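note to self: the first set is below, dont mix up w the second
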Amino acid sequence: MKFGIVGTGMIAHFHAQAIEAMEGSVLHSCYNRNPEKAADFSERYGIKNHTSLEEFLADPELEIITIGTPSGSHLEPALAAMEAGKHVICEKPLEVNLDKINSMIEASEKNNVTLAAILNRRFNESVVVLKDAVDKGRFGTLTLVEASIKWYRDQAYYDSASWRGTWVLDGGGALMNQSIHIIDQLIHTVGPVKRVTASMGLLTHENIEVEDTAVALLEFENGAKGVVQGSTSCWSSTGHPAEVNICGSDGSAFLADEHFKVWDFKNPAPEDAYVHANLMATEGAQGLGANDPNAINFTGHQRNFEEVVNSIKEGRKPSVDCLEARKAVAVITAIYESAKNDGKWVTVN
């Protein structure tokens, strides 16, 4: 299938590399209203470039577009693409508030096109194994779970672009931008969140509107109790891995990025030997993207794109569709509402 990319910033290069690595897919074109940026990106990848969104979408050869613009500017190109009959894969978050996301979902249904998200960490082998263990009931009664994102961004990161650290275009800070993939992993593996209470603050950065540190307590619909802690103010020379930790009456698993620190169950299973041989963390492992947003690879994006392409060809919904993408934004939105209202309990919608 032929892909086009909206936006030509840092994340667009991960999209381009992932598409180029896919068998049977072609990076076809790009759009950026800035002529120099559009030309530079197209020259690097040998593709068509457009500075008009209408012209970009009018190309009959274009089948799927990926969106890599700032978070709060996903709605316009997504709606335009779906109205033009194109399938859409959108970077995280799908949008920065639920009203915008709901509009995108309605447009997808109205135009009978796929709207999917980049939830690339779901495709890590370790996350697949972890979810399988939860689904099989290996943890027994789920008790305590946690998403922990102790990352670092210096002031220069926020100063590098006027949209960073704004509610309108970033949608939030350490939670909506940096922590959303890990919060998604927690929801994806443990299940829906019923309500939250939270606190947040701006502790170490200047001239931004949003939080650089937040903590929340979560009550899940299955009865589990959870904690989310996310920050861009946790300095480390190597970067702390992002963690998803799950405990239950019959087992515990602590996942640090792509490898487990703990994999321990009351009732052993055949797959445990494979996990211990291949998926355990080594001491001193560095965090993926913890200190540097460029320090990730495109493998997860490639698997994400391949899942969406396969779902379109097979006439089914992708596992990372718009309804799945909405879940993490709904939880984070509830956390923000709670924190702005002195920690009152807020129901997740």
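second set (the one i keep forgetting abt)
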Amino acid sequence: MAVTTALIGCGPRGTEWIGPALASSDKFSLVAVCDTDTPRMLAAAAKLGVPAEGDLGRLLSDRALQSVIITTGTRSHVPVALQAVAAGKHIYVEKPLADTSRAALLLANAAQKANVVAVVGYQFRATPFAMALSVELPAIHTVQALLTAHRLPLMQQFFIPDHYGGIMDDTTHVIHLALWAMGGKPDGVMAHVRRGTVAADRTIDCVTLLVDFDQRSRAAAIQSSMFGARQATNIIQFVGTHGIITSTDWQTLRVSRHAGVHEPGPKAPEGLTVLTLETPKTGYQRDTTALLEHFADLISGAADPTRPHACTLEQGAAVIAVMEAMVRSHEEGRRIALTEVL
């Protein structure tokens, strides 16, 4: 039976990507859209062919409603989600999860107590590339990662002079990938931040950060900017004591495995093998739909327990904590422990 859901937030992300995915999926029954902007809400309702409901409380009081998809602005993610959780609704929240990591953890605790399904909308986790990466990573015993994400400037609506705005609206995906792939909780952050190059304001448009794990014995380096000009070759590389995994297209994996480096010398490690893995090219809409349908399967109990691929609220909060620590590290000129922001 299809999971009943409502779309809360009728901006471009909700109406152009999430809404059509919900309306076309047989795993969902989209019953309403909701927004504080009435004209925008009515336009979304007409486009998606469902009723509009401007009163959030009334919407959430509907006992037949099982879940909500929250695509509002970042600052309102947690307030809306807390109301939904209090009403017993399962929640799918777009990224970044919250404006502060403390708010994100407050939501995570509330969702756990209410025993509802709660996920963050990092659609990367539902891609064939992520599935292949999750299979290959354990064998190389990762100690270092390098990830770059240089792109064209974002649209005007993303020029928000806060840790989750500007380039960080895009870089949040890369930070999430780094934390997920490295495994474990991050310990601290050292960072450089550049603001206002594009629009002469306080919006972050360039970052370099080093996130450390396990008492600084492992680390992930991340570079991201709005200066890519469609010419940058962005890199994903994980280096381990037993191999290396590299990609430059989020589709092809070059995997090197070996028995480990155990002695000095220029020779190749024992048992070195190299292979190339091609994963299917899917596309943004398919990946978004796949993650939404995984959310539906979690609610209905149909999800494959051996292949979890949804970002939890706790993991989403960790991403926000890294972003907060990044800004503080730059401003204070020192490493910021995650315990200082969580």
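remember for set 2: The chain has a mean pLDDT of 96.
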